[in-house]
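Appendix B, record 7
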Amino acid sequence: MLALRIIVGLGLAYTLLLLVAWLFQDRLAFPAPRAKLPDPKRVGVENGERVELVSGDGTKLVGWYLAPNTPEVGGGRGRLGEVGAVRNHLPKPPPTSPASPGLLWFYGNGETVAAIWPIVREFQPPGTAVLVLDYPGYGGSGGRAREGALYAAADAAYAALTARPDVDPQRIYVYGRSLGSAVATYTAAHHPVAGLILESPFTNAAAMAKYHYGLLPRFLLRLSLDNVANVRRVSCPILLFHGDADRLVPTAMGMAVAAAAAGPVEVVLIHGAGHNDTYDIGGRSYRDKMWRFIGRTGP
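Structure tokens (predicted):
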């Protein structure tokens, strides 16, 4: 009788676990921290402006647009901890180009524009415009964080960046970190882009669920977030960063994404970096590699 009670109790506990996983998987994947969007000028980002967009599903989105800087006005203090103007030998847009390259920035699942703006400013490539938005339900944006809503926001961000008169729509680059890698690969698979930059990408939601929650059956998973399927449709050059000590998204997943890509891929392993310290450990080497990638790739 005791053994039966234990079995029944375990069965009920497992059923409850499955119910919680079904109901709250969006919350686990998209924790959606809230934070007021800072005014760029008030925090010393003179080339920044606050932007508001509406995605295809009607969600109001907010973020920052950083106008193309010049070698003389770049730089500033960020996570790299150094101050100084961007040097003239770093990549510049071609002098005959009527407009500048544009970079879409998609951050990780626990971030907001308010949290990462110093990194975005520090990593802004010379002569390149940058657009970073808070996802639906994140930061200062409205709506609810769901997979489809993130993709709708990405479509709106792409349309907004390509419509900028100072941006060349033939030279749009996309950057995505962690969760943002799925938004970035979606964008590259559905829109023309000149290059794709991924940091700590996972293969797909099913593989991540199996890695972290092995007891849960796959049929419960509603999410796709399929980087592998997306990069198979992407022919542009890809630059992929991954920490070789990443315990949240195993390095093997990043290598699987690289192997699945239809176009050329350059993989950069950041020695000793986990999942959340890649900017600090990668430092200027990480940043300059990204700048060179944007400087040398074309439409």
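Remarks on this record: The longest strand covers residues 167-177. The beta strands are 48-54, 60-66, 100-106, 129-133, 167-177, 195-199, 238-243, 265-270.
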